[in-house]
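Input chain follows. Return structure tokens only.
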Amino acid sequence: MKKIVLFILALLVAFPSSSIALVKTGQQAETTAWIPYWRAEAGVASILPHLDKFTEVNPFVYTMRQDGTLYMNSDLGAEPWTTLRAQAKQRGILYIPTVMWANADAMDETFRDPAKRAEHVRAIVREVYARGFDGIDIDYEAKYARTKDYFSLFLKELYDAMGYDKWVMCTIESRTPLDSRYETPEDIPSDIEYANDFTEIGKYCDRVRFMAYDQGRFDLKLNAQRGDPYAPVADAAWVEKVMRLAAQEIPASKLVIGVPTYGYEYDVFPSTTGTGKMSYSRLWSFNPGYATSTAAKLGLTPTRGSSGELTLVFPASRSSEAVPLPQATRLLSWSDAGAIKEKTDLATKLGIRGVAIFKVDGGQDQGLWDVLATYRKSAGSGGVATTPLPPPSGGSASPAIPSRNLSPGSTGEEVRALQKLLNKHGYTVASSGPGSPGNETTRFGNATYAALVKFQKAKGITPSTGTYGPKTRAAFQRL
């Protein structure tokens, strides 16, 4: 890592209350929060009495203009931000604004062009140093897959330009394991591409905060297991899959769970496809107060749903907020303090770096503060994992050793078992997509062949033919 640890330690001795009091390679569990510019006054007023529960705050203020230049949506040189910054500095809490960009075409054009990319890096670095921020949080969403390598180049150049005493935080979309996104292995497309290179992001970001929210109906396995109605913002079981998958390429010491404080309202109704399944139409997001007020008006009591979130279910005809669909059921599912605690408990269980709260705007469940206080006390001295986490579906048990011979072109569950064995023992079939840890497939293709040849050569199996037979089976049995 480019940061010079000895120099940082020297600075810590000289300036113990400075903004670099949080060591990048330390073992402290961390908590941060995004405060949105559109509710700046309420958000800052809400968080100020509880700053001691955080190690970092992120004013969610910057976006990008059409020409690719930075735009400050709320003046960070004015109240309430100046008070937040002063109190954060006094407590040694990092003050790192977020810059958000979601224009896929503009990002692709900027990052592909070396000159435009360099100017974008310079603009961010100038802003950070001119305003004395502790770093920057990069939240660039909805990129094209074709932009992936150029985005990685941008992060590398930004990381190098930022310097040893500034932080580069990255906020990244969650990635659901493929076997949870598709009903059968055969449904998984063979040409899936991703917009984020987790390995490169892990190199050039000091922290990687995964937006582990807005799950909805994305995880088909959990949809089937939980039953209807089910459309959570973030089921802890899904979040665990997301973080375990990310940990296959990003050190656990850099991983942070993004935790929501809001909910969504849906109309749920019988599908018109004749499958007997239910369809979900998302209406809008809300803060918890809206849900509790709705419950009171209807004389209902929210219940803890199968997702771990609070839910409210009633006939859509009783709602005064929107014209109901015929035969629809209204579902509200939201992240209260209880659901948030499931995420902090998960962070402790996995030994990852910490949690990032989205969002603190005055409308969050006020039980949040006690949850964070408990988390900081319980996880603060527990340390952060220094060894890789098992993949999402692999667990700690060893995969079964295939009993039949396999070769390129073979299909079936024993091919999946072979891929799991290869991935488990470091002969990775693929770093992402089909064949990667947690995303093993039933098809014996070129990637499986190449990984198997590497295994055979490492174990002295000759000839190293890339086919699975008695010699290779015996080698796995000896492991």
